[in-house]
Every structure is written in structure tokens, then in C-alpha cells.
Amino acid sequence: MYDVSSITVVRALNDLAKDGYIVRKQGKGTFVSRARKHKLVEFSDVEIFETKDDKVTVLSIERGNKLSYLEKLGLRGDQFYYKIERVRETGGVVYIYHTSYIPEQYINANYPILEYYSSIYNRFKLDYHIHMNDEHFEEINEIAFPTPEHAASILGVDEQFPTVLQTKTTKLESTGQVLAYSETYKRADYYKIKFTSCDRNH
């Protein structure tokens, strides 16, 4: 037998439960958890069509300073952002409606044409040497039902047609500055995701 106190054992069990290694069920006992909490997994969108047929169109680029979005971007009341609206389509069907909010300092106000911002990630990379895919982000996906009137109109669907709302905030890893906040509506019939557990040595 191991020479440890009951207090030490209780603390150890509490730590194991906290980390997701064991699960306690009242009146039944303690069991080994089937899966750890916060286990590292890979998440990816699964496109259900040929991406080579994808087309992005920039609908508008507007300068603004609405308080609710200034707060999401960590900006002061006297600062500005640019709102960029885009749609993505395939086979003539618009299936994604993007709205991105970018701090003014990261926008080239002298852009030649709207399509200059068809890829915001490319603009950050080419204009500011920032690789957005390498920066910290938080994304939330939720079902939007009914779909807001404006988004439904752009997607060409009825408001009772379900969509997936993806909200995403990307921050500069080194300083925590918000680089972009986006709201994306995607047709539910074009939405598919995959989760894969990572190898131990991944």
C-alpha cells in the first residue's frame, strides 16, 4: 500500500476530475472518463463542392464608428473602422455573406477597386506583412433561425431558411490588438464540419 494521507488522495481525485480524467456520478461511484476535457482536436470546414468554382464579390466598403463595433475592435469613440461586405458563391448560388470590421489603420483608403479587398487575409499579408492564419482568434458558430432579413435577402433565401452564423475575432498575437471582427452567415445546406482528435505527438 502507498503511504499517503486520505486528504492527499481526495485532492488527487479532485485534480483528476477537474482535468477530465475521471467522472464522478452521485450514488454510483467514480469512473475513468471516456474523453479528456479540453483535448486537442483539429477542426475543419468540409466543402461540399469544388472550390475551384468559388467566386468572391465585394458588395461595399464603408467607413464607420458605431459604438458596438468600436467596442468589439477595442477602439476609442473617436476612432474609425471599415466595414467590408462580401458574398461567396458557387455554381451561381450565393451561400456565404461576410461582413468584416477592420480598424482604420489596417485599411488602404486609396484602394483602386472594391475587389482589392476580395481577400482580407491577402491584404493583411501583402500590405502589412501580417499572416492572419498565424494570429490568435476566437470563432463561435451558432444556428441562426430565423435568418435576419438583410442576410436572407442577400443569400436569396426565406427568413425561415436556417443559416449558420459565424462570429470571429482575430487578434495580433504579440500585442493582443484586435485586427478584425467578422460576422458570417452561411446557408445551412452548405455547412459541414469535421472534428479529428490529434495524435499524442501532434
Automatic annotation (TrEMBL):
| Signal peptide positions on this chain | none
Pfam families recorded for this chain?
A: GntR, UTRA
Which terms in the Gene Ontology molecular function aspect does this entry carry?
Answer: DNA binding; DNA-binding transcription factor activity
InterPro entries given for it? Bact_HTH_transcr_reg (IPR050679), Chorismate_lyase_/UTRA_dom_sf (IPR028978), Tscrpt_reg_HTH_GntR (IPR000524), UTRA (IPR011663), WH-like_DNA-bd_sf (IPR036388)
UbiC transcription regulator-associated domain residues are: 49-192
The transmembrane segments are: none
Q: Which UniProt keywords apply?
A: DNA-binding, Transcription, Transcription regulation
Q: Tell me the superkingdom of the source.
A: Bacteria
The answer, when asked if Transcription regulation is one of the entry's keywords, is yes
One GO biological-process annotation of the entry reads: negative regulation of DNA-templated transcription
Which PANTHER family does the UniProt record give?
A: GNTR-FAMILY TRANSCRIPTIONAL REGULATOR, MANNOSYL-D-GLYCERATE TRANSPORT/METABOLISM SYSTEM REPRESSOR MNGR-RELATED
- Protein name as catalogued: Transcriptional regulator, GntR family
Organism name = Streptococcus oralis
Recall the taxonomic lineage recorded for the source organism: Bacteria, Bacillati, Bacillota, Bacilli, Lactobacillales
